[in-house]
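for the writeup, i need someone to sanity check this before i put it in the appendix. the sequnce is what the collaborator sent (i think, or maybe the updated version? ugh). structure was predicted straight from it, no edits. if anything looks off just tell me and ill rerun, i have time this weekend
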Amino acid sequence: MKALLAIALTAALTGAAYADCPYPAAPTNLPDGRTATMEDMLAGQKSVKEYQKAIDAYVACIDKELDDAITKGGDSLKPQQKTDMQKMEAQKHNAAVDQEQSVADRFNEQVKAFKARSADKKN
């Protein structure tokens, strides 16, 4: 019975921990560097920077929510419950950072294509 109560407490705290931290959507309007104008590239850069800010806010939110959940759980949390909550937060954190890097890498590839096209026009 105690184990069931502990599982229910962990689930309740974990669910609450991430309820107010919506995961930001990645930009869908990245320009094609082979055909984009300078304005398109600047708009793409702006989208990527906004996305990076949103990811930073998301990561800060899940960090805070985890801290709040652990504080709220207090002494009733067993060490394994706390560890499980921290692992879940770390997985979410790492996935968000990986996604952010993927978006940045895709945009950087388009910047390279844009610069290569611009260099070809000069020659």
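Confidence is low (pLDDT under 50) at residues 1-18. DSSP finds three helices and no strands in the chain.
thx in advance!!
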